[in-house]
Amino acid sequence: MDYVMSNSRDTQVHQETPVTTPIRRWTKPEQGKVKVNVDGSFVIHGRYAGAGWVIRDDQGAYCLSGSSRLTQASSPIQADALALLHAIEAIWCRGYRNVTIEGDCKALFDSINLRSRDIRIENIIVNIHSWADIFSHILFS
């Protein structure tokens, strides 16, 4: 698999061994719960980072979405972690208490679910856990 990294000065093409990952389709949350899909973005050379999330109800209907520019992220995993933290704060403020949060950063969700540790996001994980403690139900997948 080829992927391209680009900035205003040059373009680099890298060869990467393809990783076979099973396709995971979006599924509705359990009845009475909402699902939040969250993602962060990070541009290495520009130090730009952003966050985005969308909330859907147990029928799959759109409820709310949001995005923000992140000024504190210094890596892709930090951008994903901060995106998740921003999403948790937003969903709490909107009154959602039974939540499933989904994202594509396996390392982040492994850290949240205490399957691994990543020192780059340790403090953010502590904040995420603090927020998670006040929800009626929260699942990170």
Automatic annotation (TrEMBL):
Q: Which Pfam families match?
A: RVT_3
Domain (RNase H type-1): give its ranges: 37-140
In terms of Gene3D superfamilies, this protein maps to: Ribonuclease H-like superfamily/Ribonuclease H
Q: What PANTHER family does the annotation carry?
A: BNAC02G40300D PROTEIN (PTHR47074), REVERSE TRANSCRIPTASE-LIKE PROTEIN (PTHR47074:SF11)
* Entry-linked CDD domains: RNase_H_like (cd06222)
UniProt protein name: RNase H type-1 domain-containing protein
- This protein's species is Cardamine amara subsp. amara
